[in-house]
Amino acid sequence: MIVDLRTYTMVPGRLNAFLELYEREGLPIQKRHLGNLIGYFVTETGTHNQVVHMWGYESAADREQRRTAMEKDPEWIAYRKKSAEAGNVQHQCNKLLRSTSFSPL
User: Which Pfam family, any one of them, does this sequence belong to (predicted)?
Assistant: First the structure.
């Protein structure tokens, strides 16, 4: 299993606006294309104004195929434009994680 771990740091005061837009418009598209949402979180301690989410894939090839299809979806393209224009995200960090032999996932 491959886990795509993403951390977005929001512009202070924009976290709720990001979450509202994403839940309403972005999440349904991603669920349709990416499938395995492991979790979606906001930070309580440490660096504030962060969203952390994880998506699971069978392999790197599975991830690439799913994300490529999503990037071509006109609804996703429109959502990304709308999200960028809202100016909510200040910084983004992505990590691909490979599970160990003893991981429960």
Answer: NIPSNAP
